[in-house]
Design a protein that fits this description.
The protein has about 210 residues and is of the alpha+beta class. α1 packs parallel to α3 and α3 packs antiparallel against α4. Keywords: Cell junction, Cell membrane, Membrane, Tight junction, Transmembrane, Transmembrane helix. Pfam families: PMP22_Claudin. This is Claudin. Claudins function as major constituents of the tight junction complexes that regulate the permeability of epithelia.
Amino acid sequence: SGGLQLLGFVLAFLGWIGIIISTAMPQWKMASYAGDNIVTAQALYEGLWMSCAMQSTGQIQCKVYDSLLKLESSLQATRALMVAAILLGLVAVFVAVTGMKCMKCMEDDQVKKMRMAVFGGVIFIIAGLAALVATSWYGNRVARAFYDPFTPVNTRFEFGSALFIGWAAASLAMLGGAFLCCSCPRRETSYPPTRGYPKNAPSTGKDYV
């Protein structure tokens, strides 16, 4: 139905916005470090683009990563997947909007319009999968480093809030995309019986009279 289609689009769109926010956030992994004195306590954050340190005074200092060549290949791959998810989501937004029943584009061809909505849903699902793979892969690396006995205590990072936002956003994008895919075929298959039988029934009744 049109309601399910609209709900799917809203969920997928919110998921896409969440993927953008997650990608931009520096809190992909975080660690707290306290020296001999509590005054030196600070929280360390690392993201896809920069690392930040928050002092106990509340002051935050961030440093953008210098060179692409110096970064780990896994971090570059995570970046690439998240950027791909954002670009795919952008394409999905335009495709799905074109195919939605409440929009006036392509009204003359309802079948093509429905296919556009389904296609938009599929792209949203792929975008969500890309973000899910990126965040899960990054989270797995953080967990492995945390439990590695050779990792110094001062450099043990935990999951940052950006990872949780990324997981939730990826799930929303995939769920919304699935709703977009499910809403159209049902509508298409329900057309023939409703068109065929009601029209024939009254006409046959009139013939007998």
